[in-house]
Amino acid sequence: MKMENEYFLTGKIHEECGVFGVYHVSSAASLSYFGLHALQHRGQEAAGIATSDGKQITCIKGKGLITEVFNNETINKMDGIHAIGHVRYSTDGGNEIENVQPIMVRAHTGHFGAVHNGQIVNASELKEDLENQGSIFQGSSDSEIMLHLIQREAGTFVEKIMGACRKMEGAFAFIIMTKDCMYAVRDKNGLRPLSLAFLEDGYCISSETCAFDIVGAKFIRDIEPGEVVRIASDGVKSFHYTQEVQHKMCAMEYIYFARPDSSIEGINVHTSRRHAGMLLAQSDDVEADIVIGVPDSSLSAAIGYSEASGLPYEIGLIKNRYVGRTFIQPTQQQRERGVRMKLSAISSIVSGKRVVMVDDSIVRGTTSRRIVQLLKDAGATEVHVRIASAPFSSPCFYGVDTSTYEELISARMGVDELCTYINADTLKFMTIEQMREAIPTRDLCVSCFSGQYPTALFSFQKVIKKK
Ligand SMILES: O=P(O)(O)OC[C@H]1O[C@H](OP(=O)(O)OP(=O)(O)O)[C@H](O)[C@@H]1O
Ligand SMILES: NC(=O)CC[C@H](N)C(=O)O
Ligand code: SF4
Ligand SMILES: [Mg+2]
């Protein structure tokens, strides 16, 4: 797995992947390009689109951003009325082209392909089994397992997909395309988001609803946990591969990953972040002059904190928009310079002020430590750090690259020690109960905050045992 390496290089948790699909629309490739552009924050390592004209499938993929992999010429070459697309941040398998998605196969029953967001926790076991039975994998990601399993199952294509889903544990949102059908699939725990919309005379599927707005699609509903939705010329049909479902939507989708203009399970991401900020303020009695957020993902929470506390909201930090979420810095010194490159404090705003600095999460501690210093260098007299989530103290095995305890600062330090480490005057987190109040969905996965996992962990169990 690459996650440990990559994490230490960047010092960041990364987004997950973004999946997108369109069925029966006028220009499937260009709509997919725009949809994936809206999902780019979920993965910046590689991108790909496969289109079908109803007879055959064409797939183009490559490393880099969607704008680097595609241009007018490539998009125009891709005829088709159906398409699936992907933006990748790898969690399993490196960034070789074989792991870049869509992953396509030529089966005797027809050419098909899939895009995946999530992490199959029993991937090693399934892969070993499949290899023992004669499967030869093209790449090394967990996602490819789905295609092998489909091929080995019996029945109609949708029955094959359902059979495959019953064998996989963990987190998965898949879109699968044959030359004339599309399938949207969500794992039975509902860990990763996936929604359905109308588009032109056809349909659109996306990891996040922000992509619907960009292409002009009209939201219909979320795919249910354990559901397979089949879209074909005879319309949309729903199937359930199991009745044993849970609604464990990833809390970090609301806290950090998703775009503020997306709604997940009916809850707008900006609204939930603002609510989190309000709850933070309501349980706080710190004396301060201004509230600032750390761009980008904590601005909504900072606005909420300001509203509930009555303290003025200020722009105290400016982000250089040309430094993305995933710049790679090989050493700690370079990583810290990276945060300095990314964010600058406005001294005329913070100088002489007692500042409440709201961020959405602390993972490694690099950002908070650096920013407290930036604010103090810019003349802030006090910096009170408020985090709009609980301490991130356990690894995630569901498609986010935090797979060990060592890399998580809250697994190593209590709040007081962490406050001293980041050199803040005070530090407070939310409780898990407050997080649930801010995100009033049916139920949430909060495993990285609680250490309680909603699924069996298979080979990842050894990470827990090693703790
Ligand atoms: O404790 P750390 O390991 O430093 O990680 C936590 C920080 O990283 C994320 O921001 P990021 O800069 O990735 O993205 P953003 O601009 O979208 O907020 C998150 O919002 C925190 O600010
Ligand atoms: N971040 C993700 O959702 C990654 C999907 C898949 N596990 C991969 O590594 O390609
Ligand atoms: S462990 Fe954390 S990051 Fe992973 S799915 Fe659960 S809430 Fe999301
Ligand atoms: Mg941030």
Automatic annotation (TrEMBL):
Protein known as: Amidophosphoribosyltransferase
Keywords: 4Fe-4S, Glutamine amidotransferase, Glycosyltransferase, Iron, Iron-sulfur, Magnesium, Metal-binding, Purine biosynthesis, Transferase
Catalytic-site annotation from UniProt: 17 (nucleophile)
Listed InterPro entries: GATase_2_dom, Ntn_hydrolases_N, PRTase-like, PRTase_dom, PurF, PurF_N
Gene name linked to the record: purF
Coiled-coil boundaries: none
Organism: Holdemania massiliensis
Record's catalysed reaction(s): 5-phospho-beta-D-ribosylamine + L-glutamate + diphosphate = 5-phospho-alpha-D-ribose 1-diphosphate + L-glutamine + H2O
Record keyword Aminoacyl-tRNA synthetase present: no
GO BP term, pick one: purine nucleobase biosynthetic process
Signal peptide start-end: none
